[in-house]
Amino acid sequence: MNIINPATEEIIKTVQEDSLALLHEKYAVLRQAQKEWAKKSLAERLSVVQRFFDLLGVETEGLAAVLTAEVGKPIQQSRNEIKGARTRISWMINNAERYLSEELVTDTAALQEKISYEPLGVICNISAWNYPYLVGVNVFVPALIAGNAVLYKPSEYATITGLEIERLWEKSGLPDGIFKVAIGGKETGEALLDLDFDGYFFTGSYRTGKYIYERVAKKMVPCQLELGGKDPLYVANDVPDVAAVAIGTADGAFYNNGQSCCAVERIYVHEDVYQAYETAFLKEVESWKIGLPTEEVVYIAALTRKEQLDVLEDQVQDALSKGAILLCGGKRRPGKGYYFEPTVLIGVTNEMKVMREESFGPIIGIMKVKDDQEAIALMKDSDYGLTAAVYSADGDRAQRILGDIDAGSGYWNCCDRVSAGLPWSGRKHSGFGATLSHQGLRAFVKPKAWHLRK
Ligand code: NAD
Question: How many helices (H) and strands (E) does the chain have?
Fold first, then answer.
């Protein structure tokens, strides 16, 4: 399998995909080793995770360079990602004892009732490429803390990073056979669905997630899906500084070249502030530097996958054919690398692909609305339900609107944000189950109820 730098189209490495026999071997090793890992105290397991956290800090620069070479992410954003992953790990380390220790529920002279949390066993984590550290850490860190062994399948577009993560676990002193990486693409993922894991934790597209859920249903083990989104954002007419909102929300739409599951993908703006918003938004987008992701000042770099260029071009054509207006961008850039110009479409409607299907690229549709009711109806009109955002001076107004929308996260005066202490979960085609927060720690354990009559 060739690993291609999406910004230069050069082959940076050739790796051997795992054979079926090797995958079976890895699975058997994990199965055997997990029992001993589960017997270790929580403190012992946490000390290994702490070393992993430290190493991510020590090696940030080298790891960021690998990530940027492999997925095309601007180098500043690669560093940010590793920093963000460390923030999450730190939260997990600090809260594991609180949420994974035995809980005494009843303690009388005659009866004791308590809950203990046991690891699921050996879990399979099939992952995405857009934030390999962040979405990986959401799963494999709490899984390991809880005493599970993990087979981690990085995306084929983030293979070297996956191997780096494996190296860091080894260096952290994780016992042999507790964390293994499966190398390969779709076929490797398929093969993992045939093995008897005790849980499947998937991050990726709706299409693949649905397929995996159907395939593993008969195993009767937990299956958690973190999938895509078409996240709406509404700018109300009482925002005090329209230009500041435009700048902040443009970042929410275009950060990581728009390749974030919780990227702003649809914008609805109240007619009273629409023109000021559109002008400031366009000015911001046109100020960004496009270029090689290794350059410090570059904000828009190459997309990770070449095929996405076709998806974006198709969305632009579809929108224009239905009456939208192109304010900027709209096409791929000539020359080497999978570059797409940052694209802003106005005069869009919810009937256009750009407002319905996940774009996962540097493109946005902005639509004028007459009031909150129209905005709510349009925001709700989606198969996805990952996040939704409202910008307004009035917190009650924003929370009323957000409370009406079937999404896993609601943002007031912010967007495109994840917090370690809050559950990260989707609804509808964005998936189900939660990572992060105490719910995310408990996603990797089975509760046991103890009824102890004295
Ligand atoms: P993808 O579905 O193409 O691939 C995800 C993983 O599944 C990869 O490792 C891939 O090799 C594997 N895979 C593909 N086909 C498979 C099959 N038939 N059987 C088993 N495994 C298979 O998604 P992607 O392009 O890697 O990631 C982008 C998607 O992920 C976007 O939709 C994005 O919104 C979503 N995402 C969601 C979150 C979240 O937290 N909700 C986070 C990051 C990304």
Answer: 14, 22
Catalytic residue list contains 261: yes
C-alpha angle with apex 224: 221 to 228, nearest 5 degrees?
Answer: 155
CA of 227 to the centre of ligand 1 (A): 7
- For ligand 1, the distance from its centroid to the CA atom of residue 246, given in whole angstroms, is 30
Based on the residue annotation, tell me whether 226 is a catalytic residue of this protein: yes
Q: What angle do CA 88, 94, 100 make, to 5 degrees?
A: 100
- Does the beta carbon of 231 sit less than 6 angstroms from any atom of ligand 1? no
Q: Is the CB of 358 under 6 A from ligand 1?
A: yes
Q: 416 C-alpha to center of ligand 1: Å? A: 19
Distance 395 CA to ligand 1 centre (A): 35
359 contacts 228 by C-beta, under 8 angstroms? no
Q: Which amino acid is at 230?
A: K
Sign of CA dihedral 305, 157, 223, 80: negative
Is residue 185 lining ligand 1, measured as CB closer than 6 Å?
A: yes
Q: Which of 124, 223, 261, 415 is catalytic?
A: 261
Tens-binned pLDDT, residue by residue, of the chain (454 aa)? 999 999 999 999 999 999 999 999 999 999 999 999 999 999 999 999 999 999 999 999 999 999 999 999 999 999 999 999 999 999 999 999 999 999 999 999 999 999 999 999 999 999 999 999 999 999 999 999 999 999 999 999 999 999 999 999 999 999 999 999 999 999 999 999 999 999 999 999 999 999 999 999 999 999 999 999 999 999 999 999 999 999 999 999 999 999 999 999 999 999 999 999 999 999 999 999 999 999 999 999 999 999 999 999 999 999 999 999 999 999 999 999 999 999 999 999 999 999 999 999 999 999 999 999 999 999 999 999 999 999 999 999 999 999 999 999 999 999 999 999 999 999 999 999 999 999 999 999 999 999 999 9
Q: What is the pTM for the complete model shown?
A: 0.97
Using an 8 Å Cβ cutoff, are 157 and 57 in contact?
no
Catalytic site residue from 156, 226, 357, 358: 226
